From TrEMBL:
It comes from Pedobacter hartonius. Residues 1-23 form the signal peptide. This is Outer membrane protein beta-barrel domain-containing protein. It comes from the Bacteria. Keywords: Signal.
Length: 248
């Protein structure tokens, strides 16, 4: 019965200490669009202070557009990390199932980001070296989302909170536009990342849900700086206005 708690603890430690890459993935946009005119917006934060926002709008019964971004500024004794990212996209969504409560979404998009990282080494408490890494990069991605609005109730303090679940697979190609170490131009890198994502939403009202997101990150190329060293572990809130409602 303690295995889920051990798994969560391992994920937390992994997210806290797996930070070797200059690429920091953002929380993917999983809007669960279901009909024309629906709007979805979300804000998420990780344990490391990685702040994300997502927005999506259904321009028709099957076409949606996306906007997302992320920002983090972490300062520690041995390492500082500042990064920002913005991305846009669009694609196709459809509902299926007896009550139209299952959703399939396929999106593609592009983005741009920048990462500044300072690495410091100490000897007996004295600073002996500092390395400043700066890169601007471009990103393209393809993403498939599957989710369900079929609710399972979570009972807490005498109240029932409906839960629904989803998963996504994102394939991202990230390529450095420039790369400097201590102000000196350095050979650029690129990589292809596979990012499986899982999320759970707890509905607080017809429009507002809490979301927990976790993911892994796998790089298909052997790189020194653009590696698969970061993953996602975040909590946030999502609003959906419009769309197909669950039948009472």
């Amino acid at each position: 019965m303690f295995k889920p708690f051990k798994l969560i603890a391992c994920l937390i430690l992994f997210c806290l200490y797996s930070c070797s890459s200059l690429y920091v993935p953002n929380v993917p946009n999983t809007p669960m669009l279901s009909s024309q005119g629906e709007f979805s917006g979300g804000a998420h934060i990780s344990l490391r202070g990685n702040a994300n926002f997502n927005g999506a709008y259904a321009v028709s019964n099957h076409i949606g557009v996306l906007l997302g971004g992320a920002y983090m500024n972490s300062e520690r004794k041995r390492k500082d990390l500042n990064y920002k990212l913005v991305e846009i996209g669009g694609g196709y969504f459809t509902t299926f199932g007896p009550d139209k409560n299952r959703i399939l979404e396929i999106y593609a998009g592009l983005g741009t980001g920048k990462t500044n990282r300072s690495l410091r080494e100490y000897n007996s408490g004295d600073l002996i070296s500092t390395e400043l890494q700066v890169t601007d990069y471009s990103k393209t991605f393809l993403q498939v989302n599957y989710s369900s609005k079929k609710n399972n109730n979570f009972h807490l303090f005498g109240n029932n909170y409906p839960l629904n679940y989803g998963t996504a697979l994102r394939i991202s190609h990230v390529s450095m536009d420039n790369f400097f170490i201590n102000g000196i131009g350095t050979p650029k890198e690129d990589n292809i990342f596979l990012e499986p994502i899982f999320f759970t939403r707890m509905r607080l009202s017809d429009a507002v849900q809490l979301q927990y997101t976790t993911s892994s990150n796998f790089g298909l190329k052997n790189r020194k700086y653009l590696t698969a060293g970061n993953s996602i572990f975040s909590v946030g809130a999502v609003i959906n206005v419009g769309g197909i409602k669950k039948k009472k």
